[in-house]
Amino acid sequence: MEFHAVRLLVNDFQKSLSFYRDVLGFSEWHNDEQEYAYFEKQQLALFSHLKIRDVIGEEQPTNEAFYSKFLLQFEVDNVDETYRGLVNKGVRFINLPHDQAGWGSRVVHLRDPEGNVIELYQILKKEKG
């Protein structure tokens, strides 16, 4: 068995496709009729929640309460530059770029159009000495 991709089940396929493709700049293959997109380099797929519900036998949830169930993590060359570039595209962030010294990383967090948490990080370089 080999890992293929994380598949996000989304309520608004076009809005999510636009976010990952146009805002984050991921390249994809997509099928509008099937409401499916695959971003091969990132091993990330988007799929309509409505399209999968019948396949997996899931009913429409009665409680739409939101809480984070997972986090998508992407390494970037420079968190601050990436942050500024996405702010210029209208992205709203959960927090500001900051160091997590215990993790050895600089991070910033945002949500995609479906509310999924995304972490952008860069490895902090250790000072010589």
Automatic annotation (TrEMBL):
User: Is Metal-binding found in the keyword set?
Assistant: yes
Which InterPro entries does the annotation name?
Answer: Glyas_Bleomycin-R_OHBP_Dase, Glyas_Fos-R_dOase_dom, MMCE/EMCE_epimerase, VOC_core
What top-level branch of life does the organism fall under? Answer: Bacteria
Q: Which residues form the VOC domain?
A: 2-123
| Gene Ontology molecular function: any one | methylmalonyl-CoA epimerase activity
Q: List GO BP terms, alphabetically.
A: L-methylmalonyl-CoA metabolic process
Q: Which Pfam families does the record associate with it?
A: Glyoxalase
Q: Which UniProt keywords apply?
A: Metal-binding
**Descriptive protein name:** VOC domain-containing protein
> Which source organism?
Heyndrickxia shackletonii
